[in-house]
Amino acid sequence: MIQDIISSENLTEFQTGILSKIQNKERLNIDEGIELFKFDLGVLGILASYLNNLKNQNKVYFNKNFHIEPTNICIYDCTFCSYHRKINQEGSWEYSISDILEKVEPYRNSEVTEIHIVGGVHPNRDIHYYGEMMQKIKEILPNIHIKAFTAVELDFMIKKAKLDLKEGLIKLKEYGLDSIPGGGAEIFEPEIRKKVCHEKSTAKQWLGIHEAAHGVGIPSNATMLYGHLENHRHRIEHLDKLRELQDKTDGFNTFIPLKFKMANNPLSYLGEVNTLEDLKMFAISRIFLDNFDHIKAYWPMLGKDVSQISLSFGVDDIDGTIDDSTKIYSMAGAKDQKPTMTTKELIELIKTAGKKPVERDTVYNVVKEH
Ligand code: V47
Ligand code: SF4
Fold it and tell me: Is residue 153 part of a domain?
């Protein structure tokens, strides 16, 4: 198939070399990664599907999960964020532990395997507060996997507790933290990072926290926020740093490209990139990140239709049931204002794309093949 593209397409010598490398499963360098954006979308789809098929065959993963967002009060004010508020500002919330337990209670004895907990960086909440929250959640749901706190939240709460990174992560693990979601990575390039989230943890800190987590047996996810002020080089350099860390630790479960959503934030004037760009981003992530097994399309952000199409562009995971429990994307203008999909709908979405639905747990153990 790749050979057919090489002989039929009007390609430069550089591009033909890239295709040969992909065919021989050789790693692409940064310049080659950037060049991929010039390829036709159909060609990228074929290349990404070829590589995805080698890793995951026809399988598409999903899980049964829900989110808790304990607070949207945040000390930072990232310019892409529609979600954060200051204390007592209209639209802010800060749930107490008992409020949170009330939200968890309905899932007692359910088949949900994961709870995803992220929120703003609240100035007064520390590691012990969140520790108690996790312990009490596990009293209700003893077998649940807690995937919680972006590296930015962790950075703050660990420093606030005056612990070093390793001690803080070990403490959180003792409290019940099982893995770390991918948020807070945004874009690593320092000049753009300054413009979109100038005060919060640097790229080096984000990578250092994930490396330290992997070192103490806490796996994590990785993300990249794209479609704002960055260019293609910044995106590929971001992927390159993730690929480098994955070589070192093998601790990332999945990579999730996050499309910038424009509503109600200071970067609204930028608009949003189109679906073609989204699909290219998914395919290129699959091609460039040769040491990541999974590429996730987060459906509450992309919408159900585009998530389904992304399955032909290297994606093998569409996250979970969610259960209308996240506000990050609805507040930023996502089409689905109350994101929830039943297991039946998720299975249907995957099957109608010609793929095999596989229910997984957070670390990709198979729960059930459908
Ligand atoms: O770090 C915030 C992003 C992230 C906007 O690990 C925005 O399984 C687009 O990381 N437009 C938090 N993106 C969410 C996150 C995540 C989501 C789903 C699954 C996983 C996982 C992790 O949300 C933030 C930021 O990059 N974000 N505002 C916005 N307007
Ligand atoms: Fe706070 Fe996260 Fe929003 Fe930045 S993206 S302002 S850290 S809630």
Answer: yes
pLDDT of amino acid 9: 67
Q: Give domain status of residue 43, yes or no.
A: no
pLDDT at 339 over 80: no
Question: 257 by DSSP, 3-state: which?
Answer: strand
Ligand nearest to the CA of 183: 1
Residue range 100-155, pLDDT digits in tens: 999 999 999 999 999 999 999 999 999 999 999 999 999 999 999 999 999 999 99
Residue nearest to atom 2 of ligand 2 (CA): 120
Kindly give the number of the ligand 2 atom that is closest to the alpha carbon of 119: 8
Residue 355 Cα, ligand 2 centroid: separation in angstroms? 35
- 115 and 101 Cβ atoms separated by less than 8 Å: no
How much distance in Å is there from the Cα of 13 to the middle of ligand 1?
38
The answer to whether residue 327 sits within a structural domain is yes
Number of domains in the chain: 1
Owning domain of residue 364 = 53-369
Q: Considering only CA atoms, which residue is closest to atom 10 of ligand 1?
A: 183
Length of the chain as a residue count: 370
Contacts (Cβ under 8 Å, ≥6 apart) of 306: 275, 278, 279, 297
Burial class (CB in 10 A: 0-12, 13-18, 19+), 159: middle
The predicted-structure confidence for 223-254, as pLDDT tens digits, reads as follows: 999 999 999 999 999 999 999 999 999 999 99
- Would you say 360 and 316 are in contact if contact means Cβ atoms under 8 Å apart? no
CATH of the domain at 62: 3.20.20.70
The pTM assigned to this predicted structure is 0.97
Closest ligand to residue 220's CA: 1
Domain presence at residue 29: no
